[in-house]
Amino acid sequence: MPDLRIVVTDTGFPDADLEKSVLAALKAEVTVAKCRTEDDVLAAARDADGLLVQWAPITRRVIEQLTRCKVISRYGVGVDMIDLDAARDHGIRVANVPDYCVEEVAAHTLCFLLALGRKIAWQDRLLHQGTWSVVPVIGSVSRLQGQTLGIVGLGRIGKRFAEMAAPLGFRILGYDVKPPASLGPVKLADLDTILRESDFISFHCPLTKDTQHLMNAQSFAKLKPTAFLLNVSRGGVVDTAALVAALESRKLAGAALDVFEQEPLPSDHPLLKMDNVILTPHIASYSTEAVLQLRRDTAKRVVEFFQGTLGPTLV
Predict the structure, then answer these.
(1) Which long-range contacts (CB under 8 A, 24 or more apart) does 235-240 make?
(2) Any catalytic annotation for residue 74?
(3) Tens digit of pLDDT for each residue in 16-39?
(4) CA-CA to 11 of 20 to 30 Å: which in 142, 172, 295, 307?
(5) Alpha-carbon distance 156 to 285, whole Å?
(6) What is the CA radius of gyration of the chain?
(7) Which of 160, 204, 234, 301 is catalytic?
(8) What is the pLDDT of residues 267-292, one digit of tens each?
(9) Buried b (16+ CB within 10 A) or exposed e, 80-111
(10) Confidence check: pLDDT of 1 > 70
(11) SS3 state of residue 228
(12) Among the options 64, 248, 263, 289, which is catalytic?
């Protein structure tokens, strides 16, 4: 009998064959579940030695009832679905894939930036509606060169996005509670300065108790009415009700969002009815290459842990 039991609590992929091939190095029993709730996780993984988790809630209640778990590996960069304090209290190590989807999310954000700045989506909608005219565009589109881009969160993705945007001639301001040693084209600024001076403000920070609703009614009040907001981090970083109010009252010129406080986004949500909003369904991280890396490396973290070689990917 295998000495270890590994449970994949949930995955959006059609199978877990790749993960199983990596985990084969442990000679472990591997179970693939479809957990959505705390009770689902406990039913599938109460006696597991290790977990691979995508979105299943690994709360304190769950962690307190995991009788053998030693490591939890997250499919992705963010770990906000895992109670890290509880994991620490119970001696469970948490790992992620920090270099996953850096190029993809940075490129997606750049697309958002250009689409908002050049009003591509708006012009596309007009043309599909039969309006062939430059009149709506005249006076509403400004040159990107020389405008200020504010980046909140200067991790791998935020820094890569800055590198992609810099050749377009932006003045780039950045904020991070723990700024990196190398800033590249970014000039550090406090959050208040970024809010007040940015023509575009883009969020690349994790969702924590400190970043929950970082953009709230008070924050929106500090923005230029001509500013655009981009969010490819986590939906909870932005107070959705405050965002909708800012857009409706014209205190914000537009937004581009890949993440939402409620996912999937309800079909009657007011954001879906706004012409100055670009929306994608939490897909910024995806490419064929990124998905293969994610699946392989998430399983690899568990193997590394039990082989005693888990290093800087430990959260």
Answers:
(1) 235/259, 235/260, 235/261, 235/262, 235/263, 236/80, 236/207, 236/211, 236/212, 236/261, 237/203, 237/205, 237/207, 237/211, 237/212, 237/213, 238/203, 238/213, 238/214, 239/213, 239/215, 240/271
(2) no
(3) 999 999 999 999 999 999 999 999
(4) 307
(5) 13
(6) 21
(7) 234
(8) 999 999 999 999 999 999 999 999 99
(9) ebbbbebbeeeebbbbbbbebbbebbbbbbbe
(10) no
(11) strand
(12) 263
Separation CA 151–CA 202 (nearest Å): 5
Q: What is the DSSP string of 263-274?
A: SSPPTT-GGGG-
- Helix/strand/coil for 175: strand
Please give the Cα distance from 177 to 206 (Å, whole number).
11
* Three-class DSSP category at 56: coil
Please say if 38 is a catalytic residue. no
Is there a catalytic annotation at residue 36? no
Distance CA 315, CA 310 (A): 11
CA end-to-end span of the chain: 31
Q: Give the neighbor-by-neighbor strand order of the sheet with 277-279.
A: 187-188, 171-175, 148-152, 200-203, 228-231, 254-257, 277-279
Tell me the two tokens of residue 230: 């981009």
How far, in Å, CA of 238 to CA of 234, rounded? Answer: 8
